[in-house]
Amino acid sequence: MRTALLLLAGAMLAGAQPYDLLLKGGRVIDPKNQLDAPRDIAVSAGRIAAVAANISPTQAKKTIDVTGLILTPGLIDLHTHNFFTAGNPGAWAGDNSVAPDSFSFRTGVTTMVDAGSSGWRNFELFRTTVIDRARTRVLAFINVGGYGMISDATEQADFSPKDLAALAIKHKDVVVGVKSAHYRKPDWKSVDTAIEAGRAANIPIMVDFGYFLPERPYYELVGKRLRPGDISTHCFRGPVPWIDAQGKLYDYLRQARARGVRFDVGHGGGSFVIRNAAGAISNGFFPDTLSSDLHTGSMNGAFMDMPTLMSKMMAIGMPLGEVIRASTWTAAETIHRPELGHLTVGAVADLAAFQLANGNFGFYDNDGAKVSGKQRLICELTLREGRIAWDWNGRQAVDWKSLPKNYGLRDVDTVVLPPR
Questions:
Q1: Residue closest to 297 by CA, chosen among 326, 327, 272, 278
Q2: Which CATH architecture has domain 2-72+355-400?
Q3: How far apart are CA 391 and CA 414, in angstroms?
Q4: I need a labelling partner for 236 at 20 to 30 A (CA). Which of 10, 15, 266, 352 fits?
């Protein structure tokens, strides 16, 4: 924040335009700062430089009119799969993963958190080939199984909490937690090992229960095993008991939340049931975080993308401000990245602009159930570190008729006219 203010002061003293970009006329929803009001946002040197009711366009090198749009912090997708390494068909560490930049910005997402696609044996390959090369900010949970999600078989054993914790500490700039997933055995070894590693590295764990067995019931996972700050993803899966015969929320869920356990959606291709989500929301129990479980199957199925999930949750009964909170600031808090997920002056200028379309829209779950809604969020503009990364309606551009007749030519171009 101090750097941004110094840059601004220097520019003003020099008589220059202090802002690189001005987004003017939008409705800003910034849950961390409890802001929901018409505001302009100015950006300088990749940071939020000002948020105010009326900023003059004369102060900015470029102004974009965002009248009618909702401006939010860049979305943080807490559960994705981005280890798109070749040679592993049908695997989340392989063909099922999605290249981050190919899907993030067009959906308003500026931060993707890989949910254990790689394990402690192959995480560094994932970092070299994907994390360090993406324009999207990619963070990661490391899988408790050595080779991660090459197949379910690799997640049943090969546990080494000491090695995992050491790796997490070595890469603490991008590692945000430990993942336990798809465990098939009746004991708690996968979860307990993840907790041991998470405790050693001082990071949370995320659990995809995967297989629901009577020997390890879900209520024990969230009620006894998980620590404050740990995350239960796929919280609206079919086998999770949410509502009793009288339509009331089971007490164990509120008790788990009181202990500090986080509930994450993780929609995916088979982990979201409208019945469960509607039962929770009708009882005033909103998920802490919304996330995709992004992979090539979910992006082409009921999930589609984060704006669709946010719209779906609104159709079920979750207020607009809550879906934005659960996709921005609470997600940042959950992974201990307080510098993200808000539009405070001095924060990185990761933000998204959404059209809130009105009409008749249908949303469905992984089992074919449908809910109808009257509103749908559509991402129109995404900024990553102050630079435009997605512009659905060409708001940054000018009418082509106003440009010089030779626009589009470069110094290396030669125009050869055809014979008449």
A1: 272
A2: Roll (2.30)
A3: 30
A4: 352
Q: Tell me: the pLDDT tens digits for 36-52?
A: 999 999 999 999 999 99
User: What span, in angstroms and rounded, lies between the C-alpha atoms of 382 and 227?
Assistant: 35
From residue 104, give the alpha-carbon distance in Å to each of 44, 47, 110, 259, 383: 23, 20, 6, 33, 11
Q: How far apart are CA 305 and CA 102, in angstroms?
A: 12
Q: Which fold has domain 74-341?
A: TIM Barrel (3.20.20)
249-295 pLDDT, tens digit each: 999 999 999 999 999 999 999 999 999 999 999 999 999 999 999 99
Phi, psi of 263 (to 5 degrees): -110, 120
Phi-psi region of 387 (alpha: psi -120 to 50; beta: other; left: phi over 0): beta
* Residue appearing with tokens 């339509």: 247
State how far the Cα of 82 lies from the Cα of 98, in Å rounded to an integer.
5
Rounded to an integer, what distance in angstroms lies between the CA atom of residue 169 and that of residue 30?
31
CA-based nearest residue to 130, from 155, 93, 166, 165: 93
Of 314, 297, 299, 291, give the one whose Cα is nearest residue 363: 314
Tokens coding 389: 């990364």
Q: What is the mean pLDDT of the chain?
A: 94
| CB-side neighbour CA atoms (13 Å) of 144 | 27
Phi-psi region of 361 (alpha: psi -120 to 50; beta: other; left: phi over 0): beta
% of the chain at pLDDT higher than 70: 95
- Terminus-to-terminus CA distance in the chain, angstroms? 62
pLDDT in tens, 141-188: 999 999 999 888 889 999 999 999 999 999 999 999 999 999 999 999
SS3 call for 43: strand
Q: Which of 33, 55, 10 is nearest to 347 (CA)?
A: 33
The identity of residue 65, as a single letter, is D
What's 225's DSSP letter?
I
Helix then strand then coil, in percent of the chain rounded to 5, is 30, 30, 45
> What are the tens digits of pLDDT across the range 284-326?
999 999 999 999 999 999 999 999 999 999 999 999 999 999 9
Of residues 136, 207, 122, 103, the one with CA closest to residue 171: 122
Beta strands 351-364 and 35-44, pairing class: unpaired
CA distance 241 to 254: 13
d(CA 106, CA 113): 17
